[in-house]
């Protein structure tokens, strides 16, 4: 049944793949400023002191890769890690300077994270008719959903922003879609996200406002799970063309439409283990706070 579903989804992908409405405009400077700011929250989610923090903790990054967040008036409302089978980790923070409540999901670090990354089978998240999500990513969200939604609902006057890098971006994408379905507006900043959805779910999330999904040159992670497995991306793609360890300028980002678009990251070839430096650099060393080793 799963194989048949994957085949049908792949055929659906092919039927929607061409043509594309491809935008190659420069992003406005004010948008670039926002992209560069919110990625620092994704970076902060890798820092141990933030995702194990008690209420009231001010966000810090020992790797010095979230200076703008450190300058803001912030406090942790809820930190989470090592409490679920998927080891979903991150925090909910209140940013009084920017009047935002931020849900940030950490990327892959533990063995349980990598298992969630590599599940690659469908589950029905109940978000829309015919919609299927990757099981590991969806499970990572629902295991912490109730606690997070409860905290978020206590601050209706603040803009809700959901961020993440890598695995964290995948969880953030599904979390934002689910939260919006509950009538709560949310902006999504997903950096280096793998594919999370079949075409129906991808179109459902794309139709929701406030999606910013970033890829970087030949980063292998956004190329997974494979198209042949029936997974596609949320549109649009903000494709960063500047090199590793380079400052991103407005002309270095191409805005590309479509569930599958070979003008961006997907068109740079199959996933390569030698391209992981592109995965680590999104406006800065995004996972600079990640701890050593591979804990359970």
From TrEMBL:
It is an enzyme of class 3 (hydrolase). Residues 102-227 form the Fungal lipase-type domain. Residues 8-77 form the Mono-/di-acylglycerol lipase N-terminal domain. Its EC number is 3.1.1.73. One of its GO terms (molecular function) is feruloyl esterase activity. One of its GO terms (biological process) is lipid catabolic process. Gene3D superfamilies: alpha/beta hydrolase (3.40.50.1820). Keywords: Hydrolase, Serine esterase, Signal. It catalyses: feruloyl-polysaccharide + H2O = ferulate + polysaccharide. It comes from the Eukaryota. CDD domains: Lipase_3 (cd00519). Residues 1-17 form the signal peptide. Belongs to the AB hydrolase superfamily. FaeA family. This is feruloyl esterase.
